[in-house]
Amino acid sequence: MMSGRFLSILKEVLAATVIAMVILAAWVLSNSATTFVYQGY
Amino acid sequence: MSGGFDATSYFYDLFAVVLIAIPAFYLCRGALARKLVWILSGVVLIAAIAPRLAFFYLLYWMLIPPVWSLLDRVPQGLARRVAFFSHLIALLAPMVAWKLLGDAFVGPLNKGLADVLWAFSPTLGQLDAIRDVFIPVGLSFATFRALDLAIQRYLGLLDPPAVDVLAYGLFPCVLVTGPICQFKELDLTGIARTRADAEDFSIALQRIVLGLVKLFILAKLLAPSVVMVTQFEALEVPLILALVAFAWYFYFNFSGYADLAIGFARLFGVRLEENFHYPYLQRNLQLFWANWHMSLTRFAQRNVFVPAGGMRARTQYRAVVATMMTIALWHDLSLSLVIFGIYHSLGLIVLRLLGNRKWSLSRLIRNETLARTTATGITFVYVLMSFPLLVISTDRLAAFYSSLFGWSA
Amino acid sequence: MIRLLDRWHTEPLWPSWSSLIRVLLLAGLLTAAGGSVLSNLPDTGLVSMFDSRLSANASMASVERARPVGFRDVAAPPGHVAWIAGSSINMRLTDQRGRVGWRLLPDIVASRLNRTGMETHVSIYLLQAAALYETLLAVEHARSGDPAAIVVAVNPWWVFNTHAISRWENLRAIGLGLVPREVGTLGLHLAQMRPGQLVDFGLGRISGMPIAGYALNLKAQTALNRWNPAVRQERKVPKPIEQMTGPDFWRAYSGAETTSEYFAMATSMDEDQLNHRILRRIVKSLAAFDGPAAVYVPPLNPAYLRKEGIAEIAADIGDEVERVVAVHGDGMVRFWDHPGLHPPAGAYRDHLHLKDKGRLDRTFAILVKRLVLEGNEEGR
Questions:
Q1: Of B109, B118, B172, B395, which has fewest CB within 10 angstroms of its CB?
Q2: DSSP string, B278-314
Q3: How many cross-chain Cβ pairs, A to B, lie less than 8 Å apart?
Q4: Which of C14, C24, C213 faces A31 most closely, judged by CB atoms?
Q5: CA C153 – CA C131 distance, rounded (Å)
Q6: Angstrom distance (rounded) from CA B36 to CA C299
Q7: Closest Cα to residue B140, out of B254, B265, B302?
Q8: Which CATH number, 3.40.50.1110, 2.40.50.140, 2.40.10.340, 3.40.50.720, labels domain C51-377?
Q9: B209 in contact with A at a CB cutoff of 8 Å?
C-alpha cells in the first residue's frame, strides 16, 4: 500500500520534472523574441 | 516554411489566449456564449498577427451563410449545380490567387485590408500599421474546411446556423496550423453540455508537452536542414544526410503543430481526429498516405476519391490520380507539385497493380521481420525522394537531383 | 517506444484534478527554479555596443532593437541630464588621426561641458529607430530616474508618421523592459502588444527568465548555425514583400515613387490621430516633470529637403511640434530650434544621420547648460 502511494508520487514528480525540462528547453531553443534578430547597424 | 509566419510567436499567443479562453468557456453555460468565446479567441489570435488578417478571416467566414441562403433560392437542377460550383470556386479563389500570384497578391491584400480598417477607424488603422506584412497563413486550411462544409451542406448532411459556421471557421486551436478538421468533430450541438474533465485535461497536457518536444526541441534542432536543402549548392556534407534530416524536421514540425492543436482543442472538450500516425514506419505508400497529414487525405477521400469513382474497378486509377493531385496542389500550385502528384499517383497505381496480382515483398524475402523492414525502408526512400519537390523551385530541381545522385554514385 | 507513445496519446496519466494540479504546480515550481538558474548564468544579460567607447561622464541605457531587455537601470548620479533619442544621435566621426568610429552626440556634448568647467553627467536613453510611442515610454522611464533635466529628440521621420506609432522590433524589447507609468499609456501598451508578449511582460516582472531566454536562445541559434555553412548565404537574399516589417512595407508599397513622397503621404498632423495624441502625452509628461525639459526635432538633410516640396512638410512638422509644446507644456517645456542645430548637407551620411558634428556640440552645450541653470534658478 505504502509503496504504491510512493510510486504514484514518484511518477508525478518525474512527470513534473519532464514537463519543466521541456518548457525550459523549448524556451531556450525557440524564444519568440529572437525571430527578428537585429543584424546590422 | 512560409516566410512571414513565426510559429513560436503564434503558439505563444495561442497559449496566452487559451489561458483566458478556457475559464471563460467553462464559466459560460450557454451554447451561444461558448461559441462566442471561440469566435472571439480566434479573432484575437489572428489579430495578434495583424488586425487586418483577422478582418480578412472574419469576412471570409461571414460571407458564407448569406451565400448559402442565396443558393437555396436557385431552382433545383442544373442552375443549382452551376451556382454551387461557382460558390466552391469563390471559396477557392483567395487561396488560388495567393499561390499563383505570390507577392502580387499578398501586397494588394495587405494594403487593401489596411485601407478598409483605416476608413473604419483611424486609431485601429494606426495600431494595425505597425504590424508586419502578413501572408494569409492558415488560408489553405481554412479554404479546405470551408469547401468541406459547403459540400456537406450541399449533400444535405448538415445545415449549420451562421454562428456555428463562424465558430467552426474561427475555432482558435486549428486556425493557422490545421488540421483540416471536419465540422462534426467540434460537436457544436453538444457544446453546452461539455464539462471540464480531469481526464481530458490530462490527455491535453500530455499532448501539448509532446507537441512542445516535437516542434520546439526536435524540429528546432533539425531546422538548419531546411537551409541545407534549399541552399544545397553550398553544402559541404552529403546532401542525402541533409535530406533525411529535413524529412524528420518536416515530420516533427508538422506533427508538432497537430499535437498542439489536438491538445489545446481537448482542453475545450473537443476530440480532434489524428493527423499523423507514424507515417515513416508504414510498409507501403498507400499506408503512408493514410497516416501522413491524415486530415487532408480524409478530405481528399471524401470529396475527390469517392466522387471520382475510386471504389469502382474501372475508374479507380483515375480517382487515385485526381486524389493525389488534390493533395499535391493543396501545398502549392506549381510544376514541382504537379510532378509530386504524378510521382505519388504512379507509386500508388503500381502498388494497386501489384496488390491485384497478390504480389508482395514476402515472396522475395522469407524472413518476415526483414521483409517488413525492407518494405518500410523502400516506402521511406520513395517518399523521401519526393520531398525536394516541396521546397526546391522547378528550375533548380535538375541540379538538386543530380547533386543528390552524383554523391551516391 | 510506439506503445509508450500510444499510451501517452490516449491514457490520462493524471486522471484526477488533485494529481493534475499537483503535477502542474510542481512543474511550474521546477520551471521557475530552472529558469532562475539559467538566468543567472554568465552572459545572459544585455551587451551594449557602446559600452567600451563611452567617456566616463555618460552612462548608457541602451536598448538594442529586438532585445527584450528594456533600459538598463544605470545608477546615474544626482543632477544628471536624461537625453532621450533615437538613431539621430549616432554619429560616424573621423578623428584627427583619420580613424572612423561611432560616437554619440550627448556624449560629446557632455565632454565639452566638462571641459568648460561645468560638471555634467548625461544618461543616454537610446533606442535605435525610436518611434513616438517608444519615446513616450523612455520619457516615463527617464522621469523615474530623477534627472535634473530632460532632453527629448523626436524624429521628424516618425513623429507624425501614421504608419509607425511604434516599431514592432522595439515593442518586443520594450514589452519586457519598460513598464508604462500611467494608466492611459498602459492601455496603449496593451493595444499594441501580442497576447504572448503580454505573458512575457507578466513573467518578466517576476522572473529573469524571459530576458535570459533571449540571450540563451541567441547562443543556441548561433551554435546551430555554426555547422551550417549555407546559413550565411541565405541572409544575402533580398526580402520578398511577405517578409517585410510594417513600416518598410508601407514605404515600399505606398505607391509613392520616392521615399520622400512616401514621407509626405504618411505624415498627418491631425489632432485626432494616435501619434498626435502620443506627442501630447509626451509633452504633458514632461510638463508634469519636476524640472526643466526640452524637445527638439533633429533636422533633416537640406539636400534631401530640396526634393518635391518636402521642405514645407518638414517645416510644418517642426512648427506643429513647437505648437504642441507651447500649448501643452504649461510653460515648463522648451522647444529648441537654433541656427546652430542645422548642419550643412555635407555633414550628413543620409537623410538624418551625421558624419560631421560641425557646430552641433557647441550649440547643444550652450542649450543644455542654459536648461540646467534655468532649472537651478527655478529652485531645484
A1: B395
A2: -GGG-SSHHHHHHHSSHHHHHHHIIIIITTTTTTSTT
A3: 32
A4: C213
A5: 11
A6: 51
A7: B254
A8: 3.40.50.1110
A9: yes
Q: Give C190-204 pLDDT, tens digit per residue.
A: 888 889 888 887 887
Among candidates B6, B9, B212 on the partner chain, residue whose Cβ is nearest the Cβ of A26: B212
Distances (CA, A) of B84 to B58, B144, C42: 22, 15, 64
Domain ranges of chain B: 7-190, 195-273, 277-409
In chain C, the residue whose alpha carbon lies closest to the alpha carbon of A32 is C214
* Mean pLDDT calculated for residue range C255-281: 87
Asked if C15 and B198 come within 8 Å (Cβ–Cβ), the reply is: yes
Give residue C177's pLDDT: 66
- Would you state the pLDDT for residue B2? 34
User: B15 and C199 in contact by Cβ < 8 A?
Assistant: yes
Q: In chain A, what residues touch C17 (CB-CB under 8 Å)?
A: none
pLDDT at C45 over 60: no
Backbone angles phi, psi at B226, to 5 degrees: -65, -50
Cell of B80: 443549382
Grid cell 541545407 is found at B228
Could you tell me which chain B residue has the CA closest to the CA of C172?
B9
CB of C132 closer than 8 Å to CB of C162: no
| For chain C, domain boundaries | 51-377
Q: What is the mean pLDDT of residues C268-293?
A: 93
Q: Calculate what percentage of chain C has a pLDDT beyond 90.
A: 28
pLDDT band of C173, cuts 50, 70, 90: low
* Contact across the interface for B212 and A22, Cβ inside 8 Å: yes
**Residue B340: which residues within 8 A CB-CB, separation 6 or more?**
B328, B331, B386, B389, B390
**Which residues does chain C have within 8 Å of residue A23's beta carbon, measured at their own beta carbons?**
27, 31
Q: Using the beta-carbon criterion (under 8 Å), do B6 and A32 form an inter-chain contact? A: yes
Chains contacting chain C through 3 or more C-beta pairs under 8 A: A, B
Q: Which residues of A touch B2 (CB under 8 A)?
A: none
Q: Measure CB to CB from residue C34 to each of A24, A29, A39 and give the nearest one.
A: A24
